[in-house]
Amino acid sequence: MLEIIYQDQYMVAINKPHGLLVHRSSIAADAEEFALQMVRDQIGKTVYPVHRLDRKTSGILVFALNSRVAAKLKTILEDTVTQKNYIAIVRGFFPDSIELDYALTNDRGKTQDAITQFKTIKRSELPIPFGKFSTSRYSLIEAWPKTGRMHQIRKHLNHLRHPIIGDRPHGCNKQNRLFKERWNMTTMLLHARQLNLLHPVTKEPLILKAKPFEEFDRMLHDLGFTG
User: Fold this and answer.
1) Which residues, listed in sequence order, are joined to residue 104 by a DSSP beta bridge?
2) Burial (0-12, 13-18, 19+ Cβ within 10 Å), 44
3) CA–CA distance from 73 to each of 10, 66, 67, 120 (Å)?
4) Does residue 101 have an active-site annotation?
């Protein structure tokens, strides 16, 4: 059963697990389960996707319950007033805060403006030698994408040389190998934690929140971010 974090007669929002596709895709022929079908079967109603969340990313995923609301939600989610908050664990000591304005090129070769605001929540240094360094450094950060480009947060963090742990292909293969060997961890540590938006029908403010999953919590503990 998927965790439903909000539902009314117009829309439903779930906490999507890592590794679950939003809908069927030709680029992931191995997948047998999809969020769209699972939500539909769970609530017994047709649902309409209104935004995407990477397969490897967990967190808030919204569906409309009719096509008219779907169109409204798509517009709302693209509005700059809507705030999307993510958390991630990245390599190295991240800056206190930074806003990156760095255009990205999509799979069709089109270059688009992309802006993301970042802020460090906490840093951690472990006595684990890595490469030429005697310790390993990590940061727990927040991200607010101001635009909605594919893999935007992942690509921006890679550009800043602070890739997300567990990310492939935009991460650090050596770090990913370390996490697999030392912690048996292969999950990408990116989670859509909060979504602030206006309700598509009532226009009332909605604040949707989704807790990280067990694997993310385990790494928060093991890397020293809790307590």
Assistant:
1) 112
2) exposed
3) 10, 11, 10, 30
4) no
For 47, residues 6+ apart whose C-beta sits below 8 A from its C-beta are 12, 36, 39, 40, 63, 64, 65
Residue whose entry in the numeric block shows the structure tokens 């769970």: 42
Cα 66 from Cα 205, distance rounded (Å) = 20
Amino acid at 84: K
Tell me the mean pLDDT in the region 87-110: 94
pLDDT at residue 28 in the model = 54
Instruction: Read off the pLDDT of each residue in 219-225 and give the average, rounded to a whole number.
Output: 97
- The residues that bridge with 209 in the sheet, in sequence order, are 194
Instruction: Note the pTM of the prediction, 2 decimals.
Output: 0.94
Q: Rounded to whole angstroms, how far apart are CA atoms 48 and 11? A: 9
- With contact defined as beta carbons under 8 Å apart, do 137 and 93 qualify? yes
CA 58 to chain centre: 5
Side chain identity at 187, as an amino acid letter? T
Question: In sequence order, what are the residues at sequence separation of 6 or more whose Cβ sits closer than 8 angstroms to the Cβ of residue 223?
Answer: 89, 124, 126, 138, 140
DSSP 8-state assignment for residue 62: E
Kindly report the length of the chain.
227
Supply the mean pLDDT for the chain. 94
Question: Residue 182, Cβ neighbours under 10 Å: how many?
Answer: 12
How many beta carbons lie within 10 A of that of residue 189, not counting itself?
Answer: 27
Catalytic residue, candidates 8, 30, 41, 54: 54
163: three-class secondary structure by DSSP: coil
Residues 6+ apart with CB under 8 A from 69: 10, 11, 48, 200, 201
